[in-house]
Design a protein that fits this description.
Number of strands: 19
CATH architecture: Beta Barrel
Shape: globular
CATH class: Mainly Beta
Number of helices: 4
Strand content: over 45%
Order of helices and strands: HEEEEEEEEEEEEEEEHHEEEEH
Keywords: Signal
Distance between the termini: 15 Å
CATH topology: Porin
């Protein structure tokens, strides 16, 4: 097994938790998976020698909008700061600043008469500009077109009769290269399967209470045929909200298949979570562990301290051996699958 371990630089755990199919800028605490308004989220990432490697702080406004995010790599002495400003309740500008000034950039946002996002312009320090255009239909995001220096990326969104996202198609065009078309499928707003047309690079994801597992499909004709038939059925039933399973049952079925057919699915990523609950019994992630599948060991743990808008504080960023032991037990259960 192989896995590329990476720090979650300039990101939040709750982004990873929700794996939301999101091409619109995330601004509200709800976009980040919280049910109650949040004031601040802090985190520290430790290696298994209990040495802090990275820390971050994310501040929200009184209206529940993300205001600033600061991520610092303590080993490399690097940092990234993002500041967001709003106008009439809409994201107006987002500034990215780094210790490496050459990567600094500014994002600006334009809205149509319906207050729907119409255009995002990205201006880099060297003067280069990228642009993303957004199209809506019946209040839902229908298409995004991203213009970059040497490429054009178009994403189309497909919704069920009840308005649930079930599919996206992404077309990447580059000069003098064949188009790359990626189909992705969603359950409960989380990506479960994707592949590149006509039939390559199949990926599968599962989501359970305390873990996310991701797989690549090996080059096996029968398994590929089975997966394609499943996606054809999904394409037929999902638009009518007539699927006979939800995300949990899908994930359990996928794990059962993996446990019996480990030669058909290659495990590429394992993320473990530990939760605490607020006074209203809402679950909030407190710790996250990424697994190094080269050694089948925990690569490191990130601890979170969340301050809600009502002043309630959940978790802390100090290292806890008890959490490590829980993650080790969870990892053993994954190995036993």
């Amino acid at each position: 097994m192989s896995l590329k371990i990476k720090l979650l630089s300039a990101s939040l755990l709750f982004l990873g938790l929700n794996v939301i199919a999101q091409s619109l800028p995330s601004i509200s605490y709800k976009n980040y998976g919280f049910e109650n308004a949040v004031s601040k989220v802090e985190s520290v990432y430790y290696n298994l020698n209990k040495q802090p490697k990275e820390k971050s702080a994310h501040q929200f406004t009184k209206n529940g909008f993300i205001e600033s995010s600061l991520t610092e790599n303590l080993q490399e002495k690097t940092w990234l700061l993002t500041k967001s400003s709003y106008k009439k309740g809409k994201l107006n500008k987002r500034i990215f600043q780094s210790n490496d000034a050459s990567v600094n950039k500014k994002h600006t946002y334009k809205y149509n008469a319906k207050n729907e996002l119409e255009k995002e312009t990205i201006i880099f320090k060297n003067g280069q500009k990228n642009q993303i255009n957004f199209t809506f239909e019946n209040g839902r995001l229908k298409e995004t077109i991203a213009h970059k220096y040497n490429s054009l990326t178009t994403i189309k969104y497909f919704y069920s009769e009840q308005g649930n996202l079930y599919k996206t198609t992404k077309t990447l065009k580059k000069n003098n290269q064949p188009d790359v078309i990626t189909n992705s499928f969603y359950l409960e707003n989380k990506e479960i399967t994707s592949y590149v047309e006509p039939q390559s690079n199949f990926k599968v994801s599962t989501y359970l209470d305390n873990l996310i597992l991701k797989f690549n499909l090996t080059e096996d004709e029968k398994t590929t045929e089975r997966l394609l038939k499943g996606m054809q059925r999904f394409n037929k039933e999902a638009p009518k909200d007539n699927l006979p399973f939800g995300l949990e049952s899908y994930s359990n079925q996928t794990l059962q298949f993996y446990s019996k057919n480990k030669d058909k699915l290659q495990l590429t990523e394992v993320v473990l979570f530990e939760y605490i609950t607020d006074k209203q019994n809402h679950k909030i992630a407190y710790a996250e562990a990424h697994i190094d599948l080269n050694t089948n060991t925990i690569a490191g743990i990130r601890f979170y301290k969340t301050t809600l808008a009502n002043g309630e504080i959940l978790g802390n960023t100090a290292y806890e051996d008890a959490v490590l032991h829980k993650f080790q037990d969870m990892l053993e259960a994954v190995k036993a699958m």
